[in-house]
């Protein structure tokens, strides 16, 4: 199908659509209000729930912080609490940044560029999160055992390290490689869009 | 109240634009309805601040195309969350021949990039290069160059088949 045929087909469709009147005032306002309500409740979705769980865990750890009685527990505790508060905030901010692209005043190409840039920022945050997970794996276990069981796993005769560390390492390696391949795929698609925009300038 | 009435009148007068964009960008009926609702919502959001610097239809094309571009990219991984029962789309008459040709048209434009897709849509809508430039943010010359490339691509598709 060449362009001229496309134009003819499009024009035929236009003729058929022109005289149809299916929308009523009530329907239009209902559609708008329904969508508005949905946007207002957007934090209840899974990313918001994930953040709330992290904040609750951080608060719980803060209340138990006095149980961390050696320097390495204090350092690990600070990192764990920091991770549970800062990372969800960064993720939520980057998601909101994508939602806040100005669809009303931007031109089509401005929207495309804004989308690609914000998507890249979001993926960078996710990537940082993946690396931090490895550190969290190492530091959160002693903190949690100390807080909830009162044991120092570096001193107490505990075999937890023998099964926890290998299992979590395997899980994290798989999770990270999945995350990284997704990152590369999306970055490649973003580059393709930017290349298309560059081509247009020529 | 008066603003709401002006808005609903606008949508009723130009709902063909929204419908055609949803068919151009979304594959299945649910995605089309979802996109339709999102476009109406974005237009409603922007309507209060629309100052009439551009033609209202130009403004509508811009907002609707921007919404289609971003909403569908995000939607791919999220699925639907809003009730779509209240969304009523227009429909072509029962014309199998036209339906078949439209299907071919939509398949062809899927191979184009995001920018080209926006340009070809506006071209099919009968927009002049100057107006396409105003909506896309490209210069008229760029639109012309891009249109020539699109024509070439469509020809190559035919030769390949």
Description:
- The complex is a heterodimer of chains A (202) and B (161).
- By secondary structure, chain A is mostly helical.
- Chain A contains six helices and no strands.
- Chain A has one domain.
- The relative contact order of chain A is 0.07.
- Chain B folds into two domains: 1-91, RNA polymerase sigma factor, region 2, helix turn helix motif (Rna Polymerase Sigma Factor, Chain: A, Orthogonal Bundle), CATH 1.10.1740; 93-161, Arc Repressor Mutant, subunit A (Orthogonal Bundle), CATH 1.10.10.
- Chain B has helices spanning 2-25, 29-47, 56-75, 96-110, 114-124, 129-136, 140-160.
- In chain B, helix 2 (29-47) crosses helix 3 and helix 6 (129-136) crosses helix 7 (140-160).
- The radius of gyration of chain B is 17 Å and the shape is globular.
- Chains A and B meet through helix 1, helix 2, helix 5 and helix 6 of A and helix 1, helix 2, helix 3, helix 4 and helix 5 of B.
Q: Which two chains share the most extensive interface? A: A-B, 51 and 68 residues
N-to-C series of helices and strands of chain B: HHHHHHH
Number of domains of chain B: 2
* Number of E strands of chain A: 0
Number of helices of chain B: 7
| Average pLDDT rating of chain A | 80
Q: Helix and strand succession of chain A?
A: HHHHHH
- What's the oligomerization state? heterodimer
Stretches with pLDDT under 50, minimum 5 residues of chain A? none
CATH topology of the largest domain in chain B: Rna Polymerase Sigma Factor, Chain: A
N- and C-termini, Cα separation of chain B: 55 Å
Measured by DSSP, the beta-strand proportion of chain A falls in: under 5%
**Shape of chain B from CA axes?**
globular
Largest sheet of chain A: none
Per the principal axes of the C-alpha atoms, what is the gross shape of chain A? elongated
The radius of gyration of chain A is 26 Å
How many separate helices of chain A? 6
């Amino acid at each position: 199908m060449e362009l001229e045929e496309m134009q003819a087909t499009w024009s035929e469709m236009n003729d058929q659509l022109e005289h149809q009147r299916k929308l009523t005032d009530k329907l239009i306002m209902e559609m708008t209000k329904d969508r508005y309500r949905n946007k207002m409740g957007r934090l209840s979705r899974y990313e918001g729930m994930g953040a709330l769980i992290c904040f609750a865990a951080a608060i719980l750890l803060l209340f138990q912080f006095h149980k961390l009685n050696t320097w390495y527990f204090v350092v690990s505790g600070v990192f764990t609490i920091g991770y549970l508060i800062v990372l969800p905030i960064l993720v939520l901010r980057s998601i909101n940044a994508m939602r806040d692209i100005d669809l009303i005043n931007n031109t089509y190409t401005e929207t495309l560029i804004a989308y690609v840039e914000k998507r890249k920022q979001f993926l960078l945050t996710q990537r940082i999160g993946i690396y931090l997970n490895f550190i969290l794996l190492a530091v959160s276990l002693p903190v949690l055992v100390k807080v909830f069981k009162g044991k120092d796993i570096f001193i107490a005769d505990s075999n937890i390290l023998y099964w926890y560390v290998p299992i979590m390492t395997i899980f994290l390696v798989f999770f990270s490689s999945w995350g990284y391949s997704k990152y590369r795929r999306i970055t490649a698609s973003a580059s393709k869009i930017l290349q298309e925009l560059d081509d247009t300038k020529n | 109240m008066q603003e709401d009435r002006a808005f609903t009148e606008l949508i009723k007068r130009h709902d063909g634009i929204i419908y055609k964009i949803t068919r151009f960008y979304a594959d299945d009926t649910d995605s089309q309805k979802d996109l339709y609702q999102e476009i109406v919502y974005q237009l409603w959001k922007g309507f209060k601040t629309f100052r009439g610097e551009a033609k209202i239809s130009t403004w509508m094309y811009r907002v609707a195309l921007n919404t289609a571009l971003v909403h569908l990219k995000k939607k791919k991984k999220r699925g639907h969350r809003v009730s779509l029962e209240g969304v009523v789309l227009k429909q072509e008459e029962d014309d199998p021949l036209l339906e078949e040709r439209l299907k071919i048209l939509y398949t062809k434009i899927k191979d184009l990039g995001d920018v080209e897709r926006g340009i070809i849509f506006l071209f099919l809508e009968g927009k002049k290069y100057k107006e396409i430039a105003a909506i896309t943010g490209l210069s008229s010359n760029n639109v012309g160059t891009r249109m020539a490339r699109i024509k070439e691509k469509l020809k190559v598709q035919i030769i390949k088949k």
